[in-house]
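Weekly structure sync - notes
Attendees: PM, LS, DV (DV joined late)
Agenda: review two folding runs queued last week.

Item 1: First target. Sequence and structure tokens pasted below for the record.
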Amino acid sequence: MTEKDLAIMSTTTPSKVEFLQYNQDVMEIGIYEIEVEQTITSSKIDQQLQPFTCKMTFVVSGERFGPLSPSDIYAVFPPQDSLGEHHYVVPHITLKRSTLPWERFPGTSDEELPWLVLLLLRETDFDNEQDKPKLQSLTLKDLLATPDTIKFPQITLELGGQHEQEAVTVIDVKKKYLQPVLPTKADLAYLAHARQPKDAEGNPQGEQLATLGKLDGC
């Protein structure tokens, strides 16, 4: 290794990594309204002019129904088709957009908890071939018309591109298989974190990433 190689390593290798409990965007997903008013006054104007006003509404939208694209994913563990003693390591997926797990709420208010979770379903978890979940593609309209015997979170379509003909990918999992692996609300705080590499002076260096993991037993 040459002196030049050592110099490159010293400037690109982070000295430490800071782990963050959560990493939220400045603006939450939702509908916003801006109103601006301008009033002109002058000693040369006798009468009071009407103020000039302008109002604008805009939407901050984000991921909700669509599957993650390969460009969203930094890495997964275990890697696809890999062999090894993986049962000693927590399965996890690392995302390039470090705010993604916290861009929505798992409930109705901001509690700094992730809305995304990683579930691990194995072929050996199911009693027979018919019980194994299979990917299905359908529209939101069809999903909302699902019989009450099938449970899923309530959905209210938002402004900003969501519509009933939007295609979504779903799986049907029987309650007896799903309930043991679903995390509780108390588990959510432990299922995701963000991390930021830093140099020796504490300055951010490199990409900030987010990781979703699976707790043992859920």
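Item 2: Second target, run right after the first with the same settings.
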Amino acid sequence: MIAQQRQRVESSKRQELAKYIAVVDATEELVGNAHNLPYSGSLMICLNKKILDSLKAMYAIDSGDKSIQQRIKDVQTQISQLQQSYQSKDSTAFRVPDNDRDAISMLKLVKRLRAVIQAEHTKGHMHTQEFVAENSRLEQMQMKINVENVLKRVNDAKAKGQMGTAQQLLKKALDVVSAKNDPYCVQAKESLGQAYQELTDSLNKGFEEARPKDESNEELDELFAPKKKW
């Protein structure tokens, strides 16, 4: 009976540890992607604090594991360094997606990051002002990834002579940024609008030049034109 009880306790401990290990692994993966997207200091600290909380929970379950204690110290040191030197800069510069697959991968990463900060804010681990600012920054990044990827597709379409496709892509991107009023979208709206208008004018000019002239219509225009007084 005692042996069975001990087995149940051990099984429960293993399940709890596995849960926290999964959280640590997933969060460390997000931290490891800081070279793919511009992470703010606030975001990096949030992610490392999430790792720290899970490690502390693991140590509370299994205090005999000295490796957990060392990892706790390492993460605490990392957080301290981030607080001192990382607050005013991003982890890397924004990188334009290479292709649609790359853009989708980047968007999925941003979505995961937004989910994490939402959860941490709900738990009270992130101040509201800090959460609002970071969520807004990540939302703008999503928009930038989408717009920059569309612009790359526009250029590809132009290179292939697919001007109609390029026009449709520009119109789609223009509609999206027009619904927002943050600095990036305002600037993007201006540049996209200009590109769309130039392409539309070019297509219209090409259409007019390619359209065959109808001589009978010209004759009718002359017949029904206002009569000149001599």
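Discussion on item 2: The mean pLDDT is 86.
Action: LS to circulate a short write-up before next sync.
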